[in-house]
Amino acid sequence: MSEIISVRNLTKKFENGVYALQNVNLSIEKGDIFGIIGMSGAGKSTLIRCLNYLEKPSEGNVFVNGKNLAEQSESELRLIRRNMGMIFQNFNLLMQKTVLENVQFPLDIQGIEKAEGKKRAQELLTMVGLEEKEKAYPVQLSGGQKQRVAIARALASNPEVLLLDEATSALDPKTTVAILELLKEIQKKYQVTIVLITHEMEVVKVICNKVAILEDGYLVEEGSVECLNKRFG
Ligand code: ADP
Question: Which of 180, 204, 210, 222 is the most buried (most CB within 10 A)?
Answer without folding.
Answer: 204
